[in-house]
Amino acid sequence: MLLCSCWLCANSSLWAAELNIRGNQLPVTLGQYLDYLEDPSRERSIDDIRSGESEWQRSRQSIPTMGMSSSAFWFHIRLTGEDTAGQDLLLSLDSPTLDRIEFYFVRDDQVIQKSVLGASIPTSQQSHPYRIPMVLFEMAPEGSETQVYIRVTSSSGIEIPLTLTTMSLLALDQQRPLVVLGAFFAFLFLCFAASAILYFYLSDRQFLAYALFFGGMIVYFLSTTGMGRVWFWGDTAEINTRLSYVATAFIIMSLCLIGQYLRFDHRYRDSVNLVLRFLSYAMLPVAVFFLIVPFDQITQAIVLPIIYLTMLVSLILLVMAGITAVQGSRSALYLLFSVTAILFALMSLLSYKLGIVEKGVFTTATGEVLVTIAALLLFASLAEFVRAKNEEYDRARLDTKAKGDFLRNVSREFLTPVHLILANSKRLLAAQSNTLDEPTKAHITTVIQQSDYLHNLINDLLEMAELESDNFEPEFELLEISHFLTEVKDMILPTAMEKGLTLSTDFASANLLVQTDKVRLQHSLLNILTNAIKFTERGSILIGYKAVYFRRRLGIEIFVRDTGRGMSAEFQKRLFQEFTREDDLSEKEPRGTGLGLVIVKRMIEKLGGEISFESESKEGSEFFIRLPLRVITD
């Protein structure tokens, strides 16, 4: 038990509490023995303070809490010691967010030591840099006293958890908090990494919202615990305080984004989402503002609205999560509890930031526990969201498979009668062409054309269903590409010659082996070449290849270039959509099913490649198929 002698002189403002310390009593909390006064002008010097005209007030709090104020505050205490003369003692101030702290040590009416610490001072300018401000001093000989004056300014609130200790005792006392902080940051980083990876691979912006939240929390707590100064930005002046506000802006942005992607049914949903969208975009200039505004202009008038806005957004998100949870979302239920914990943590923070209650060990621990619980629940919400997404994906996959099976079965049933109608109509027209009158011939020709169109459509639908089925497996083999493209050219050459078109090849090299599915690549190229011939009235068609780097590996680019009618800019945007055709085709121009290039695109992607094109109306088109030379299989 600590036994400290304290003599108070209540009738004189010149005398602060005098605390007599014994070495075996350390560490000692000094907060309740401090006298303090407010300096609204921030212009009073140590000489003004010691002039005897100051009206000191006695602190009755173990951690003097002044709240958020634009004033400077002075604190004073008189220290004596029985067995501490000549011993290096340490004053530690467990408040990493104080902007500037000036320590003045006075002995025999002379300032014998001055130290300037705080979040706005680079660690290289501090004699003993650490995550919290601390200063070493030497106690006066027995019978003499050491007076300590402390001047504090801060835009984020002033709390003075001042402790008299030694370096060894401080190191021992900090072991447990550092272990807890290390575990806390490791957990936040894992949550951030998981959210970022999910966003990178799935491109779902809700994962971006979670990543922003956990990333903002990491930066915020690195700033408010002082660990950021130790690990990252210690030599950068003022950045610690600035980053805490920037992180707060990104946390608000993340909460707005999370709210936007909540799926709940309510008549005001669109209006609320519009407000949240505006706030999320507004946080970007706010973050930039805190990075570039002069540091002395960051005051409570600017900081308090940010805290209130955080509470407002949290309340909105609380209501939205509650509605969504009632409607059956388990992810929203976890989010509801998480936001509740965040609100309680904010109220705890605001209570001592405004000086309503004293900042104590309990309030600090309560806030940290609430934030930890909120992070855990938010991560649980993320996990539940991923699980629900997987369930939706499985259901969608089963639905797609069922539709594909139905489509294949129905298409096969249609294929037989359509094939018979087409074949018999052609036989009838060929056998009776001399005896049929012209109107009958025209009707039979129309039947043949429409049956042929329907036949091609069913074949395309069957191929689409096969591509989307789980049973689709490419059969990879090694092809010598120049020989393969020559075969494709010979297959399509008669069709080109019928229209008087020139079909040529351009091979960059020979004997290049490509691992791919021959039948499906051949089908894709024939489809592209058929379209090129169909929409080219005169000129030439060129097919060729060259070696390229594809997705950081050696690959091949096959190209088909024609001098045909080209495509309009509007149609190019819809080229790979199902049943898409050029709108301005004349009645005489051939029409397809609008599925051919969609099938080609999906087939090339199944082969591990990609397809692109360049086209200009009335100037022709060029298609590019890029494939890896070797397919990497699991």
Describe this structure in words.
This protein is of the alpha+beta class and 634 residues long. The protein contains 14 helices and 21 strands. The strands form 5 sheets. Strands 1, 2, 4, 5, 7, 9, 10 and 12 form an 8-stranded mixed beta sheet that branches. The protein has a 5-stranded mixed beta sheet with strand order 16-18-19-21-20, with helices on one face. Helix 2 (167-202) packs antiparallel against helix 3 (205-224) and helix 9 runs antiparallel to helix 10 (438-468). The longest helix has 71 residues, at 361-431. It starts with a strand and ends in a 6-residue tail after the last strand.
Runs in which pLDDT lies below 50 for 5 or more consecutive residues are 1-14, 586-590
Radius of gyration based on Cα positions: 39 Å
| Head-to-tail CA distance between termini | 67 Å
Portion of residues within helices: 40-55%
Number of strands: 21
Classification by helices and strands: alpha+beta
Distinct helical segment count: 14
Tell me, briefly, the overall form. Answer: elongated
Query: Quick one: biggest sheet?
Result: 8 strands, mixed
Question: How much of the residues is beta strand, in percent?
Answer: 15-25%
Name the quaternary structure.
single chain
